[in-house]
Design goal:
Number of helices: 8
Number of domains: 1
Radius of gyration: 17 Å
Distance between the termini: 6 Å
Strand content: under 5%
CATH superfamily: Blc2-like
């Protein structure tokens, strides 16, 4: 019963807040920037586990994307131009350039929102952080939420994001890759078991 109460929108909202706040916490600033003054809360232990595991996966994928450098360059070029939801959405659309939605691209979008928040703080326009949160959530609700629900909700994202995590990591030995796959497989299996147990209650 508890699992039926999981809200894909609520998980997305709490997850986005967490991803953005984690990145902002790494920015040296005299005034700490808080993504949202409204308390974002999940409504069950199951949702909390989903948010925590997804945040960890997005962090790994995002770190690999950041090393590329191209994303930061694109964001730098747009920071001064982000004066409205339309201009922000134009940047966000680059994540889904060929109109193909995947779990990986949704993870990258959440990471990109955090990077943009960091850039506007560095550019001394921290008031834009709350707009970025609002605009991203509106994009999420209108363009991605339906896709997420049709693809089984956030619970179904773990397998693909785990695969992406391994692919994005720097080259390593076959043994290390196998070890990570086994570890991630355990995380996924644990999530599935928890989900099934939650359904029985």
């Amino acid at each position: 019963m508890a699992c039926a109460e999981i809200s894909d929108y609520r998980v997305g909202e709490v997850l986005l807040n967490r991803v953005m706040q984690e990145q902002l916490n790494e920015v040296p600033s005299d005034v700490p920037v808080v993504v949202s003054t409204k308390t974002q809360e999940v409504e069950s232990d199951q949702e909390q586990k989903i948010v925590s595991q997804l945040a960890m996966m997005i962090r790994t994928i995002g770190d690999a994307v950041k090393k590329d450098g191209k994303l930061d360059d694109a964001i730098d070029g747009m920071v001064g131009k982000m004066t409205s939801q339309t201009s922000y959405w134009n940047l966000v659309e680059k994540v889904f350039e060929d109109s193909q939605i995947t779990w990986e691209r949704i993870a990258v979008l959440f990471y990109v929102a955090g990077r943009i928040a960091v850039k506007v703080v560095i550019a001394n326009i921290p008031q834009l952080v709350k707009d970025i949160l609002k605009w991203t959530l509106e994009y999420f609700r209108s363009k991605l939420l339906d896709w997420i629900q049709k693809h089984g909700g956030w619970m179904n994202s773990f397998a693909e994001l785990a695969r992406v995590q391994v692919e994005k990591m720097s080259p390593m030995s076959t043994w290390s890759s196998a070890f990570i796959l086994v570890f991630l497989g355990g995380v996924i299996l644990g999530s599935v078991i928890t989900w099934k147990l939650a359904r029985r209650t």
